[in-house]
Write a sequence for this structure.
């Protein structure tokens, strides 16, 4: 397939996934991005391999408290293209992880740009101009579309340079160590932001209980969720009885 056509299709698809996420559909996943890209490059198995691996990497990452997280969807798309071009899935995964982390900067830019549309929409609503308010609200999707679509388009056009980035990231230890630290720190930052929205002063015993169960006893996430649901139910019933 022509490189320009491939870049266009993958960019539109990435933008489409971004829009559907805002609509409440669960299509924007690394697995779907990887499989579709694999279909476009003629190797669905490769797309499934990288998409499934990056999906496992993304488990546990969520925008808690509005935190910025690695974009494994775009990473998976890039990774499949690089793997298909080099014939090495390891390089593809290296590309996927590296660019997923680098895309956090694009997410920050996207969120900052979206506030412009939000303020314009607020101004229109203050004037009771509903039509303009609706247009500016929908316009807020533009940064979200560009944040995924534009990097994919430019990156696929410059796919030859992806191998250079992969070789650099795998050969320079301080760079890979830095990415590993950032990758581990992002979930902690997200949870810290989430805690700022919670009434920790009143519910700090639950937080300590969850920490002890996870850190010292090794209770998995599902087990913690069940304990939290039970504790919350008992607390609510007791409070209601009073």
């Amino acid at each position: 397939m022509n490189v320009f056509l491939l870049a266009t299709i993958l960019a539109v698809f990435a933008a489409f996934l971004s829009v559907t996420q805002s609509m409440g559909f669960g299509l924007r996943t690394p697995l779907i991005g990887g499989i579709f890209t694999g279909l476009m490059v003629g190797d669905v198995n490769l797309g499934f391999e990288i998409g499934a691996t990056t999906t496992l990497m993304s488990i546990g990452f969520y925008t808690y408290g509005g935190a910025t997280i690695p974009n494994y969807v775009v990473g998976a798309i890039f990774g499949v293209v690089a793997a298909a071009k080099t014939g090495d899935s390891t390089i593809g995964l290296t590309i996927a992880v590296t660019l997923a982390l680098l895309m956090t900067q694009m997410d920050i830019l996207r969120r900052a740009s979206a506030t412009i549309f939000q303020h314009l929409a607020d101004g229109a609503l203050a004037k009771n101009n509903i039509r303009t308010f609706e247009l500016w609200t929908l316009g807020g999707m533009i940064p979200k579309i560009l944040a995924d679509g534009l990097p994919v388009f430019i990156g696929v056009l410059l796919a030859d340079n992806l191998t250079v980035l992969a070789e650099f990231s795998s050969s320079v230890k301080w760079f890979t160590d830095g990415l590993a630290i950032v990758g581990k720190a992002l979930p902690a930052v997200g949870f810290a932001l989430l805690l700022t929205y919670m009434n920790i002063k009143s519910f700090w015993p639950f937080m300590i209980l969850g920490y002890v169960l996870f850190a010292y006893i090794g209770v998995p996430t599902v087990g913690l969720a069940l304990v939290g649901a039970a504790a919350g139910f008992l607390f609510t019933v007791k409070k209601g009885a009073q």
In short: The radius of gyration is 21 Å. The chain is about 85% helix and 0% strand. The chain has two domains: 3-197, 199-242.
